[in-house]
Fold each of these.
Amino acid sequence: MVQLLPALVALALLLVRPVADAAMAKYTFTVGSMQISQLCSSTSIIAVNGQLPGPSIEVNEGDDVAVKVVNNSPYNVTIHWHGVLQLMTPWADGPSMVTQCPIQPSSSYTYRFSVPGQEGTLWWHAHSSFLRATVYGAFIIRPRRGNAYPFPAPDKEVPIVLGNRCRSCIVSHSLLVIEDTKKSLTFSCLWMRLSCHEQASGGTAM
Ligand SMILES: *[C@@H]1O[C@H](CO)[C@@H](O)[C@H](O)[C@H]1NC(C)=O
């Protein structure tokens, strides 16, 4: 019962939330290969919309989100919305072979979920094999329209997504979002690390 309480509270929030000011945020993520030139070499990687990091998702608390993922890569792929609570939509969480079958090459799938009762700086990333090393981006949930930030309103926001590479592979990445207010600098940071078989052979981090 104790474990059920947060879920019940969330459910209550979901049911009473005003829907009038919620918007539908629609994105299309095309997963495919792109060339990058870094560390004195050109490499083909898999990325979203030809961008590394991938596109930022920017929504307001309570919005509905629909992301159509078109898989033009030769690999199975899924996307995990890291930190999104997925209230009532566990099937949209993204772990490959856990909450869904992967999106196979030349097919597509639309993730649909809402972000009620949540604000903050999150991120999304592939949740299938090594693709998570290059298939990622920021997921920013701002306060509901008309609501204040829980800290002094920033004058400017600068999402910074950090990626680490050794010579021939990408080993880790993190998302750092700096919110610059007149009085304070706050940031949130998430990171993950993947093993790199060439790390020992003198790769340079950047
Ligand atoms: C790709 O995903 C399908 C299910 O969607 C699965 O049957 C198949 O084994 C997967 N292929 C690989 C190489 O993991």
Amino acid sequence: MFSFSFVSLALCAVLASAQTPPEISPVLLEPGNNAGKCLTAASNSDGAAVTIQTCTGASSQQWSFSGGSVKLFGNSKCLDVTNGSTKDGTKLQIWTCSTNGNPNQQFWYTGDKRLSWTNHGKCVDLTDGNQSNGNRIQVWSCGNGNANQVWNTGYLASALPSKSENGQTGTNACGTSSSQSSQCQTAWINGVDDFCLWAPPSVGTIGDTEREEVAWCTRSGRGTRVIPDGTLKGVHFVKTPDYVQVTGVGDFTKINVPRGDAGGELDPHGADGNGNPIGGLVFGNSFGNQLQYHEWTSFISDTEFCFRACVGPNAARNCQHIYDEMGCFWNMPANYDAGTFESCQGDDDLPMGVYGTSTWFQGVNPTPPAHPAAKSSNCARIPTVSAKPAQKKRDAFTTFYAPGPTPTA
Ligand SMILES: *[C@@H]1O[C@H](CO)[C@@H](O)[C@H](O)[C@H]1NC(C)=O
Ligand SMILES: *[C@@H]1O[C@H](CO)[C@@H](O)[C@H](O)[C@H]1NC(C)=O
């Protein structure tokens, strides 16, 4: 596993210059606060406005990073700062890509997921943070932690590429069947009886296989492997304002984790930005229909697991994954009891590693205690979690609010 220290994080930020995102183009560009909205060109005409709109996967939303520019429509048109004006609030437009490096069309993708106008100290900015369709996008002075300047690169769940990252061993276009030899690396997290775990494709420690883990799910029908009945001994799902989380215990030797393996941590970024597993994507219905989670963190050992997927302005903080040696109980304090299968609403846990105004870094003595688990309520229990088919229509985000009896299909 990768041990970041404060120093290596700072170094990453410097080395992140002149980068393109790790995800293979074309990608959707989704504002950090709403994975259902996409950076969109009004048309392919020179001078067309750039706005956000509901993601549809149309060609006007399929951006490619190429030659220092952000392109679409067969790489013929470029994201362009209107008239090259450096005034904060200048709107972005679409223009024919220049052949001689027009500076108005030069952008780079930063390590903290911003689209920076190269050499200008300006960033692509969701005007006023307004997520309504039609809101025109501007450039604004880059500000650390400005949530309006986060642009996640992603894909529609219904149109996943075969591979989302170079070096990926499996696939994201997983189909609608299931197979215990599947190499699907698209996971879902929807509820106590509808979630996936990352585990090895064949027996091997998490440390040795972290880059290759595949999705093992409670539901068949999404092209993944299915967690065999009897594997899960206790499952606790919680939805908070800013994340969904599933924690529990089981016998994960049934999904290729060797007995005695203390396990390890999986996340979308890894040490090199490519994630563990490489190309692993996570989707869910809890905050909107089939939305991609761009920030998530998960641990699994031979006997316990935890998986959190985050949204909102604090997604990266709530799904912090630099504490990769600290395990589930420290990173995601929650109920892990065997014999209980429940779905609750809850408050956010305090962000891992953050104690008031100070942040602890792994390896620094003394190691602070875990935060207490946040309050939860409205828990609904089910008898057990066993494999069953994904129900396309019913896997709506309403199911959480009315867990009711175990669905019978
Ligand atoms: C850009 O420049 C052109 C030509 O000078 C001018 O007509 C247009 O109003 C300018 N656009 C903006 C948004 O300033
Ligand atoms: C948000 O953007 C939409 C689309 O441009 C606009 O109609 C609306 O007035 C904006 N809302 C606010 C509060 O500015």
